[in-house]
Model the fold of this input.
Amino acid sequence: MLDNYRKKRDFSKTDEPEGGKKKAEGRFVIQKHDARTLHYDFRLEVNGAMPSWAVTKEPNDADRRLAIRTEDHPIEYAKFEGKIPEGQYGAGSVKIWDSGKYKNIRKISMPESIKEGKIEVSLSGKNLNGNYAMIRMKPRGKQEAWLFFRMKT
Ligand code: MN
Done:
């Protein structure tokens, strides 16, 4: 699950966690990542890893946001803040923008929801609180594009 994540990084040069140590469920984190392009990395703990999406603008309750699926991250990443050095993958600063617990509010499991391309979760964070959905759009090229938005109910 973390092969793609590890391949992109040199852990002798970046302080980011290598992963694979802890198992946990039910947390989410959104990290403000000031890399080449500023974005917000949304990650959900699922089965000991964190499926992740790069949300292209600051999430809010009014707007739909484009979210590009990225490689799964280790769950230790939920605590990571710091500076990824120049020349390393994702170089730039990482700050936790929001974090808390999430609950899957669909009747099918989270891995199944991701596979199906439709996620509905209740988030209890400081900035995001309530029910949010993510829907995978029709594939265009290599990237998996999803929409992230607050649910009406
Ligand atoms: Mn990022």
In short: The CA atoms of residues 51 and 72 lie 4 Å apart. Residues 110-116 form the longest helix (7 residues). The mean pLDDT is 93.
